[in-house]
Amino acid sequence: MLPDLMKYIMVYLISMFKFVGGPAFGAAYDLNLAGTATMTILGMMTTVTIISFFGIRLRVWIQKKYKYQRKIFTKRNRRIVKIWRAYGEFGVSFFTPILFSPVIGTMIVTILGGKRKRVIGYMLISAVFWALVVASLSDLLFDILFRL
Fold first, then answer.
1. Phi (first) and psi of residue 71, to 5 degrees
2. Are 136 and 142 in contact (CB under 8 A)?
3. Which listed site, 33, 34, 67, 89, has its alpha carbon 20 to 30 Å from 81?
4. How far apart are CA 42 and CA 109, in angstroms?
């Protein structure tokens, strides 16, 4: 079996790319709820910070390198813009852990013109709230399904 430190590092790494995966992994390996939530928050915020600073440059580089042109008016893009107009930076940031991955959510907010400091602040609020909720639910569900 993996030592606890490696398990917490796995929660951190998983949470960088898929937020809900971190708490699920933590619950499956019976890790401390506070430790799981903390590592989940740190994982998401690492991604948010990197994307906030380099997101637009990364997108431009990928488009140039691969000569990639996406359709502008797709059903998905219209939905994203509708959410943006209705809820703004805070709304998209708040729902990022549940609806998107940290990478996608941060790219959306950054590309649509979110200010870096506000994006990081809103994402932190969102990460703390959702980490506690998802980690608690994961723990509870894992206990109900596998430990009874």
1. -70, 140
2. no
3. 67
4. 19
Per the CB < 8 A criterion, the answer to whether 11 and 26 are in contact is yes
Residue 22 near residue 12, CB atoms below 8 Å: yes
> What is the mean pLDDT for each group of 10 consecutive residues in the chain (148 residues)?
87 95 92 95 96 80 69 77 86 90 88 87 96 94 81
User: What is the sign of the dihedral through the CA atoms of 82, 48, 97 and 75?
Assistant: positive
Task: Give 45's contacts (C-beta < 8 A, 6+ positions apart).
Answer: 120, 123, 124, 127
Q: Are 119 and 52 in contact (CB under 8 A)?
A: yes
Burial class (CB in 10 A: 0-12, 13-18, 19+), 46: middle
Task: For residue 28, give every residue at least 6 positions away whose Cβ sits within 8 Å of its Cβ, in sequence order, or none.
Answer: 142
DSSP 133: H
Q: For the chain, how many residues are written?
A: 148
Contact 44, 127 (CB under 8 A): yes
Alpha carbon distance 96, 135 (integer Å): 16
